[in-house]
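Notebook entry, structure prediction.
Reason for the run: the old model in the group folder had no record of what sequence produced it. Starting over properly, with the input documented here first.
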Amino acid sequence: MESPLNKYLREHSTCPGPALDWIEKQTNIHTNYPRMLSGSVQGELLKLLVEISGARKILEIGSFTGYSAVCMALGMPSDGHIDALEINDELEPLMREGWEKAGVSDRITLHIGDAKETLAGLDGPYDFVFIDANKREYPDYFSAVVDKVRPGGLIVADDVLWDGKVYAEPLPADAQTAGLLKFNDMVADYPGVEVVVLPLRDGISIIRKK
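New structure, fully documented this time:
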């Protein structure tokens, strides 16, 4: 059930278009964990960050049903391009139909498979990276992409507060929380970036490469 805060944020943020509404509806119908969808407020934040940064070459690690890729594609210039990585091939038809409805399918290349293996074969420099995949592997994703991001480029990571588990006492011992704790510490201590963590939804880190 939507919290009063999230309802207020949604009602006072720019509304998504019909294609994004369609993706959200289909995600709720056809997936077991629709909460994984970025949603309208976070989606608008991604779109604005892409617009403000002028990003043309974008990498998305974890596309789910394609909602966030649409948001970022709508924020790009017409010559922009997204490499979208997703491990679940069963979601591909839904993703592609949503991208077609949004008119952005020609701006997105979908890579199905293990993200770490796919990343090894992709060349930068990227202007913008969005990380929203296996929480256990966030440190590996960061290590793999930080050198592929141009100076001044952005890395945005979702779910970094993990329902408060990363600052709970005592800390949970599960692998997902451990991965996020390592990632958050790694980014905070990394000399080549500056970072701010926002308490939006489940936490989002905005990281700028110096």
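Summary: The radius of gyration is 16 Å.
The old model has been moved to the deprecated folder.
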